[in-house]
Amino acid sequence: MTRPTRVLVTGAAGQVGVDLLDVLGGAVPLGGDAHFQPDATPITNEEFAVIGLTRHDLDVTNPTQVARALDVARPDVVVHLAAYTAVDRAEVERDACFAVNATAVGTLSDAARAVNAHFITVSTDYVFDGAKGAYVEDDPTNPLSVYGASKRAGELRCDERDTIVRTSWVMGVRGTSVVHVIADRATNGETVRFVNDQRGTVTAASDLARALATLVRERPGGYWHVANTGVTTWFDVAHFVGRALGRGDDFATAIPTSELSPAPLAPRPAKSDLVTTKFAAAFAALPPWTEALTRLTRDRAKRAS
After folding, report:
1. b/e for 244-263, b at 16 or more Cβ within 10 A?
2. Catalytic site residue 147?
3. Which of 84, 126, 135, 147 is the catalytic position?
4. What is the per-residue pLDDT for 53?
Protein backbone atom coordinates (compact mmCIF):
# COMPACT_ATOMS: atom_id res chain seq x y z
CA MET A 1 0.00 0.00 0.00
CA THR A 2 1.33 3.44 -0.95
CA ARG A 3 1.94 5.66 2.05
CA PRO A 4 0.23 9.07 2.22
CA THR A 5 2.12 12.10 0.94
CA ARG A 6 3.29 14.08 3.96
CA VAL A 7 2.50 17.79 3.60
CA LEU A 8 3.55 20.48 6.07
CA VAL A 9 1.50 23.69 5.81
CA THR A 10 2.55 26.94 7.49
CA GLY A 11 -0.06 29.60 8.11
CA ALA A 12 -2.61 26.84 8.58
CA ALA A 13 -5.07 29.11 10.41
CA GLY A 14 -5.22 31.70 7.63
CA GLN A 15 -8.04 31.96 5.10
CA VAL A 16 -6.16 29.90 2.49
CA GLY A 17 -4.65 27.58 5.09
CA VAL A 18 -7.97 26.43 6.55
CA ASP A 19 -9.29 25.75 3.05
CA LEU A 20 -6.14 23.88 2.04
CA LEU A 21 -6.36 21.64 5.10
CA ASP A 22 -9.95 20.82 4.12
CA VAL A 23 -8.97 20.08 0.52
CA LEU A 24 -6.00 17.88 1.45
CA GLY A 25 -8.31 16.01 3.82
CA GLY A 26 -10.70 15.20 0.97
CA ALA A 27 -13.36 17.77 1.91
CA VAL A 28 -14.84 20.68 -0.03
CA PRO A 29 -14.20 23.88 1.93
CA LEU A 30 -16.79 26.60 2.48
CA GLY A 31 -17.17 28.49 -0.77
CA GLY A 32 -15.66 25.60 -2.70
CA ASP A 33 -16.75 23.82 -5.86
CA ALA A 34 -16.72 20.02 -5.74
CA HIS A 35 -16.57 19.91 -9.53
CA PHE A 36 -13.37 21.97 -9.78
CA GLN A 37 -10.69 19.30 -10.14
CA PRO A 38 -7.82 20.87 -12.13
CA ASP A 39 -5.89 17.59 -12.23
CA ALA A 40 -9.08 15.61 -12.98
CA THR A 41 -8.61 13.41 -9.92
CA PRO A 42 -10.60 13.79 -6.69
CA ILE A 43 -8.69 13.79 -3.42
CA THR A 44 -9.40 11.08 -0.89
CA ASN A 45 -9.00 11.47 2.85
CA GLU A 46 -6.15 8.95 2.76
CA GLU A 47 -3.96 10.54 0.09
CA PHE A 48 -2.26 13.12 2.31
CA ALA A 49 -0.97 13.19 5.87
CA VAL A 50 -1.09 16.87 6.76
CA ILE A 51 0.83 18.76 9.44
CA GLY A 52 -0.82 22.18 9.76
CA LEU A 53 1.20 24.72 11.72
CA THR A 54 -0.10 28.11 12.87
CA ARG A 55 2.04 31.06 13.93
CA HIS A 56 1.61 29.83 17.52
CA ASP A 57 3.09 26.46 16.54
CA LEU A 58 6.01 27.78 14.51
CA ASP A 59 7.82 31.11 14.36
CA VAL A 60 8.89 31.09 10.71
CA THR A 61 11.44 33.83 11.43
CA ASN A 62 13.32 31.52 13.81
CA PRO A 63 15.72 29.33 11.76
CA THR A 64 16.25 26.89 14.63
CA GLN A 65 12.53 26.30 15.06
CA VAL A 66 12.04 25.91 11.31
CA ALA A 67 14.85 23.36 10.95
CA ARG A 68 13.59 21.40 13.96
CA ALA A 69 9.98 21.38 12.74
CA LEU A 70 10.90 20.03 9.31
CA ASP A 71 13.37 17.53 10.73
CA VAL A 72 10.67 16.13 13.03
CA ALA A 73 7.86 16.18 10.44
CA ARG A 74 9.95 14.91 7.50
CA PRO A 75 7.42 16.18 4.93
CA ASP A 76 7.44 15.34 1.24
CA VAL A 77 6.09 18.81 0.43
CA VAL A 78 6.09 22.10 2.33
CA VAL A 79 3.38 24.63 1.47
CA HIS A 80 4.34 28.00 2.92
CA LEU A 81 1.31 30.21 3.51
CA ALA A 82 2.43 32.20 6.56
CA ALA A 83 2.92 35.82 5.56
CA TYR A 84 2.96 39.43 6.69
CA THR A 85 -0.10 40.83 4.85
CA ALA A 86 -0.70 44.26 6.42
CA VAL A 87 0.12 46.16 3.24
CA ASP A 88 -0.15 49.68 4.65
CA ARG A 89 1.43 48.93 8.03
CA ALA A 90 4.40 47.41 6.21
CA GLU A 91 5.36 50.90 5.08
CA VAL A 92 6.33 51.69 8.69
CA GLU A 93 7.28 48.14 9.73
CA ARG A 94 9.67 47.29 6.94
CA ASP A 95 11.99 45.07 8.97
CA ALA A 96 9.14 42.97 10.38
CA CYS A 97 7.60 42.62 6.93
CA PHE A 98 10.87 41.53 5.30
CA ALA A 99 11.63 39.13 8.16
CA VAL A 100 8.45 37.16 7.42
CA ASN A 101 8.00 37.62 3.67
CA ALA A 102 11.62 37.44 2.55
CA THR A 103 14.10 36.00 5.06
CA ALA A 104 11.72 33.33 6.37
CA VAL A 105 10.94 32.15 2.83
CA GLY A 106 14.63 31.52 2.24
CA THR A 107 14.93 29.76 5.59
CA LEU A 108 12.02 27.45 4.79
CA SER A 109 13.26 26.78 1.26
CA ASP A 110 16.66 25.77 2.62
CA ALA A 111 15.11 23.66 5.38
CA ALA A 112 12.82 21.89 2.91
CA ARG A 113 15.73 21.05 0.65
CA ALA A 114 17.66 19.69 3.65
CA VAL A 115 14.96 17.06 4.22
CA ASN A 116 14.38 16.43 0.48
CA ALA A 117 10.96 18.09 0.51
CA HIS A 118 9.51 20.09 -2.36
CA PHE A 119 8.86 23.71 -1.41
CA ILE A 120 5.79 25.69 -2.53
CA THR A 121 5.36 29.33 -1.53
CA VAL A 122 2.65 31.88 -2.30
CA SER A 123 3.50 35.34 -3.60
CA THR A 124 1.47 38.26 -4.91
CA ASP A 125 0.49 40.46 -7.84
CA TYR A 126 2.05 43.34 -5.88
CA VAL A 127 5.48 42.34 -7.19
CA PHE A 128 4.40 44.25 -10.34
CA ASP A 129 4.06 48.02 -10.69
CA GLY A 130 0.73 47.94 -12.53
CA ALA A 131 1.89 49.92 -15.54
CA LYS A 132 1.39 47.06 -18.02
CA GLY A 133 -1.36 44.83 -16.62
CA ALA A 134 -2.12 41.32 -17.91
CA TYR A 135 1.05 39.99 -16.28
CA VAL A 136 2.54 36.63 -17.27
CA GLU A 137 5.02 34.69 -15.19
CA ASP A 138 8.19 36.00 -16.83
CA ASP A 139 7.25 39.69 -16.96
CA PRO A 140 9.73 42.01 -15.21
CA THR A 141 8.85 42.84 -11.61
CA ASN A 142 8.92 46.32 -10.08
CA PRO A 143 7.08 46.46 -6.74
CA LEU A 144 5.73 49.83 -5.60
CA SER A 145 5.31 49.07 -1.89
CA VAL A 146 7.32 47.60 0.97
CA TYR A 147 4.94 44.65 1.00
CA GLY A 148 5.44 44.01 -2.72
CA ALA A 149 9.21 44.39 -2.38
CA SER A 150 9.27 41.92 0.52
CA LYS A 151 7.35 39.32 -1.47
CA ARG A 152 9.65 39.74 -4.46
CA ALA A 153 12.66 39.36 -2.16
CA GLY A 154 11.10 36.13 -0.89
CA GLU A 155 10.72 34.86 -4.44
CA LEU A 156 14.40 35.53 -5.09
CA ARG A 157 15.42 33.58 -1.98
CA CYS A 158 13.82 30.41 -3.33
CA ASP A 159 15.71 27.60 -4.99
CA GLU A 160 15.18 27.21 -8.73
CA ARG A 161 13.43 23.89 -8.07
CA ASP A 162 10.81 25.46 -5.79
CA THR A 163 7.26 26.26 -6.91
CA ILE A 164 6.27 29.92 -6.59
CA VAL A 165 2.56 30.71 -6.87
CA ARG A 166 1.54 34.31 -7.50
CA THR A 167 -2.06 35.11 -6.68
CA SER A 168 -4.18 38.20 -6.07
CA TRP A 169 -7.23 39.65 -4.31
CA VAL A 170 -7.73 36.53 -2.20
CA MET A 171 -11.17 36.15 -0.60
CA GLY A 172 -12.43 33.30 1.55
CA VAL A 173 -15.50 32.46 3.61
CA ARG A 174 -13.27 32.12 6.65
CA GLY A 175 -10.70 34.70 7.57
CA THR A 176 -10.62 38.42 6.89
CA SER A 177 -11.13 39.93 3.45
CA VAL A 178 -12.78 42.92 1.83
CA VAL A 179 -15.72 40.82 0.65
CA HIS A 180 -16.87 40.45 4.27
CA VAL A 181 -16.84 44.21 4.71
CA ILE A 182 -18.91 44.60 1.55
CA ALA A 183 -21.38 41.89 2.55
CA ASP A 184 -21.80 43.26 6.08
CA ARG A 185 -22.62 46.72 4.78
CA ALA A 186 -24.96 45.32 2.16
CA THR A 187 -26.96 43.37 4.74
CA ASN A 188 -26.96 46.28 7.22
CA GLY A 189 -28.51 48.69 4.73
CA GLU A 190 -25.37 50.77 4.35
CA THR A 191 -23.64 51.90 1.15
CA VAL A 192 -20.02 51.63 0.02
CA ARG A 193 -17.53 53.55 -2.10
CA PHE A 194 -14.93 51.54 -4.01
CA VAL A 195 -12.29 52.45 -6.54
CA ASN A 196 -12.86 51.69 -10.20
CA ASP A 197 -9.32 52.51 -11.38
CA GLN A 198 -7.57 49.49 -9.85
CA ARG A 199 -7.84 46.44 -12.11
CA GLY A 200 -7.03 42.93 -10.97
CA THR A 201 -7.99 39.28 -10.64
CA VAL A 202 -10.09 37.85 -7.81
CA THR A 203 -9.02 34.58 -6.21
CA ALA A 204 -11.37 32.49 -4.10
CA ALA A 205 -9.41 30.91 -1.24
CA SER A 206 -11.20 27.61 -1.84
CA ASP A 207 -10.25 27.50 -5.53
CA LEU A 208 -6.67 28.52 -4.75
CA ALA A 209 -6.50 25.72 -2.17
CA ARG A 210 -7.60 23.14 -4.74
CA ALA A 211 -5.04 24.50 -7.22
CA LEU A 212 -2.34 24.26 -4.55
CA ALA A 213 -3.30 20.63 -3.93
CA THR A 214 -2.68 19.97 -7.61
CA LEU A 215 0.76 21.55 -7.33
CA VAL A 216 1.43 19.45 -4.22
CA ARG A 217 0.74 16.38 -6.34
CA GLU A 218 2.73 17.52 -9.38
CA ARG A 219 5.60 19.53 -7.78
CA PRO A 220 6.38 21.33 -11.05
CA GLY A 221 8.75 24.06 -9.88
CA GLY A 222 8.93 27.56 -11.33
CA TYR A 223 6.48 30.44 -11.31
CA TRP A 224 2.72 29.96 -11.64
CA HIS A 225 0.00 32.60 -11.75
CA VAL A 226 -3.18 31.29 -10.10
CA ALA A 227 -6.41 33.29 -9.91
CA ASN A 228 -10.03 33.00 -10.92
CA THR A 229 -10.89 33.69 -14.54
CA GLY A 230 -11.75 37.24 -15.57
CA VAL A 231 -10.50 40.74 -14.87
CA THR A 232 -12.42 43.16 -12.67
CA THR A 233 -12.18 46.23 -10.41
CA TRP A 234 -12.88 46.68 -6.71
CA PHE A 235 -16.01 48.64 -7.59
CA ASP A 236 -17.26 45.78 -9.77
CA VAL A 237 -16.64 43.34 -6.91
CA ALA A 238 -18.62 45.52 -4.50
CA HIS A 239 -21.45 46.00 -7.00
CA PHE A 240 -21.63 42.25 -7.71
CA VAL A 241 -21.72 41.26 -4.03
CA GLY A 242 -24.33 43.91 -3.33
CA ARG A 243 -26.55 42.62 -6.12
CA ALA A 244 -26.10 39.05 -4.89
CA LEU A 245 -27.41 40.19 -1.50
CA GLY A 246 -30.41 42.00 -2.94
CA ARG A 247 -29.05 45.54 -3.08
CA GLY A 248 -29.67 47.85 -6.01
CA ASP A 249 -27.38 49.94 -8.16
CA ASP A 250 -27.24 52.64 -5.48
CA PHE A 251 -25.37 50.35 -3.04
CA ALA A 252 -21.88 50.85 -4.48
CA THR A 253 -20.43 54.12 -5.75
CA ALA A 254 -17.37 54.19 -7.99
CA ILE A 255 -14.55 56.56 -7.04
CA PRO A 256 -10.96 57.09 -8.20
CA THR A 257 -8.09 56.04 -5.93
CA SER A 258 -7.28 59.72 -5.42
CA GLU A 259 -10.54 60.17 -3.49
CA LEU A 260 -9.81 57.49 -0.88
CA SER A 261 -9.89 58.96 2.61
CA PRO A 262 -7.72 58.42 4.46
CA ALA A 263 -5.26 57.88 1.64
CA PRO A 264 -3.54 54.46 1.91
CA LEU A 265 0.09 54.51 3.03
CA ALA A 266 1.15 51.96 0.43
CA PRO A 267 0.72 52.60 -3.28
CA ARG A 268 -1.26 49.96 -5.16
CA PRO A 269 -0.61 48.85 -8.74
CA ALA A 270 -3.34 50.21 -11.03
CA LYS A 271 -3.37 47.17 -13.32
CA SER A 272 -2.14 44.02 -11.58
CA ASP A 273 -4.31 41.40 -13.27
CA LEU A 274 -2.57 38.03 -13.64
CA VAL A 275 -2.67 35.97 -16.80
CA THR A 276 -3.27 32.36 -15.77
CA THR A 277 -3.02 30.55 -19.10
CA LYS A 278 0.06 28.58 -17.98
CA PHE A 279 -1.86 26.91 -15.18
CA ALA A 280 -4.95 26.48 -17.37
CA ALA A 281 -2.92 24.80 -20.12
CA ALA A 282 -1.15 22.44 -17.73
CA PHE A 283 -4.21 21.64 -15.61
CA ALA A 284 -7.49 23.60 -15.88
CA ALA A 285 -8.62 27.19 -15.60
CA LEU A 286 -10.07 28.32 -12.29
CA PRO A 287 -13.79 29.15 -12.47
CA PRO A 288 -14.93 32.71 -13.34
CA TRP A 289 -14.63 35.20 -10.48
CA THR A 290 -18.38 35.86 -10.53
CA GLU A 291 -19.10 32.18 -9.96
CA ALA A 292 -16.53 32.06 -7.15
CA LEU A 293 -18.04 35.09 -5.39
CA THR A 294 -21.53 33.65 -5.76
CA ARG A 295 -20.36 30.54 -3.90
CA LEU A 296 -18.54 32.61 -1.30
CA THR A 297 -21.55 34.85 -0.64
CA ARG A 298 -23.89 31.84 -0.44
CA ASP A 299 -21.73 29.86 1.99
CA ARG A 300 -20.94 32.93 4.06
CA ALA A 301 -24.66 33.34 4.69
CA LYS A 302 -24.99 29.65 5.58
CA ARG A 303 -22.17 29.93 8.08
CA ALA A 304 -23.76 32.95 9.73
CA SER A 305 -27.16 31.28 10.11
Report:
1. bbebeeebbebbeeeeeeee
2. yes
3. 147
4. 98
Contact 223, 164 (CB under 8 A): yes
Closest CA to 276 of 226, 223, 220: 226
Give the mean pLDDT per block of 10 residues along the chain (305 residues): 91 97 97 97 96 96 97 98 97 98 98 98 98 98 98 97 98 92 95 97 98 98 98 98 95 96 94 98 98 95 73
Answer yes or no: is 14 within a domain.
Answer: yes
Report how far apart, in Å, the C-alpha atoms of 286 and of each of 18, 31, 148, 211, 226 are. Answer: 19, 14, 24, 8, 8
Backbone angles phi, psi at 193, to 5 degrees: -120, 125
Residue 28 belongs to domain with CATH number = 3.40.50.720
pLDDT of 301: 81
- The domain of 24 spans 5-176+203-230+272-290
Structural domains counted in the chain: 1
Asked if residue 100 lies in contact with residue 61, where contact means CB atoms within 8 angstroms, the answer is yes
In whole angstroms, give the CA distance from residue 203 to residue 172.
Answer: 9
